[in-house]
UniProtKB/TrEMBL annotation:
Belongs to the aldo/keto reductase family. Keywords: NADP, Oxidoreductase. Substrate binds at H112. PANTHER family: 2,5-DIKETO-D-GLUCONIC ACID REDUCTASE, NADP-DEPENDENT OXIDOREDUCTASE DOMAIN-CONTAINING PROTEIN. One of its GO terms (molecular function) is oxidoreductase activity, acting on the CH-OH group of donors, NAD or NADP as acceptor. CDD domains: AKR_AKR5G1-3. This is Aldo/keto reductase. It comes from Litchfieldia salsa. InterPro entries: AKR, AKR5G, Aldo/ket_reductase_CS, NAD(P)_OxRdtase_dom_sf, NADP_OxRdtase_dom. The active site is at Y54.
Amino acid sequence: MIKDLRSTTTLHNGIEMPRFGLGVFQVKDGEEVVSSIKAAIEVGYRSIDTAAIYGNEEGVGRAISESGVAREELFITTKVWNGDQGYDTTLKAFEESMKKLGLDYLDLYLIHWPVPAQGKYLDTWRALEKLYKDGKIRAIGVSNFKIHHLEDIISNCEIKPMVNQVEYHPRLIQQDLHKFCKENEIQLEAWSPLMQGQLLEEPVLVEIAQKYKKSTAQIILRWDLQNEVVTIPKSVKPHRIAENANIFDFELTEDDVKVINGLNQNKRIGPDPDEFNRIS
């Protein structure tokens, strides 16, 4: 039962991961990211998702240290960027991220993109396995990996990913990928769950929102959770951060979930992971 912001899902290694958190993509380092995270923690958020390429790890670290919440109560995620992929370079990038975050350990470390043109993600994964075995990370995973990328890791490495963070929203439900992840005990996590605001005026969602006396954003986020997808909406506005989290006092019917699933168009707002090869 998903009761509140403290509700968790159990990863295949036994680690409890919050089902709901705050993403800080495109949030400026410094006061903006610090105040956003503090507002979220005050409301009850315990999961914060950043990445090396976001350029705000230092601010995230400052917010954590100033939050007044015990470190073990928080679940912190960051990601290794494409240009740092490879075994030794990933180990170095991890240490740099930890220095910026000011943390002794990380809860979840992800490979940000597969970057197939580089052909380095298996070596990168082996570096994550080492960091995990060394006790520096509680869980390891990937981001933007398709089924064939996941199969490659599962076939060639010791530890299968615990999480796969992907673009996921009512226009892109990635049903086959979701099914594969469930079958392999890989937790699916949604980035850009609100499709960068493009779905907020969608008539079907507006109608459902009116029925529950909720916002369309709240309907989408609740739909994520009922589809067993961890979600990390981004906002820098305290009232929106609080509103996004106000989704635990109602439950969508099975019919409503099916109707929202039916909005799928396999439409991405981000790049196709098979084609995205940016390293800088």
